[in-house]
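Consider the subject:
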Amino acid sequence: MSRIGRMPIAVPAGVTVEIAENNKVTVKGPKGTLERVLPAEMDIKQEGSEIVVSRPNDLKKMKSLHGLTRTLIHNMIIGVTEGYEKKLEVNGVGYRAQKQGKKLVLSLGYSHPVEMEDPEGIETVLDGTNIIIVKGISKEAVGQYAAEIRAKRAPEPYKGKGIKYADEVIRRKVGKTGKK
């Protein structure tokens, strides 16, 4: 049985990983720097161009932290080399998105436009008026900001109006039918 936590993490060329005390891991790469304090119980070692995460014992909590720790480091390495992006679609008559400097202005059928400031380290790019691409090096921050944008007007099941992820499938419902 292959366990995620036991898989070594390959460190690509041009990426430096530093492991300080209290398991503070700093990853530097071409796109930027990410740092994170990981669970202190895990043993993180750099062996050549690979990082190995090992656990002290087989308690359930340690097993779950083992895979989590390894995945978090792996996501940081992918973030500083390739970066992450999420695509959102704005569907609905009169619903549209605009960019004003670092502000994302959404017209979503409310009485006023919804303005959202891009957080630090995250960039939003518009593709036309109805596709928003959220880009950044931190997977967690990109996902969080994309979820906040979607929450401004989540898609509804009757007409499919609202903001949805590009790969999301909305379960549609049949509306009311009039009397015959």
Q: What stands out?
A: Residues 60-81 form the longest helix (22 residues). The chain is about 20% helix and 35% strand.
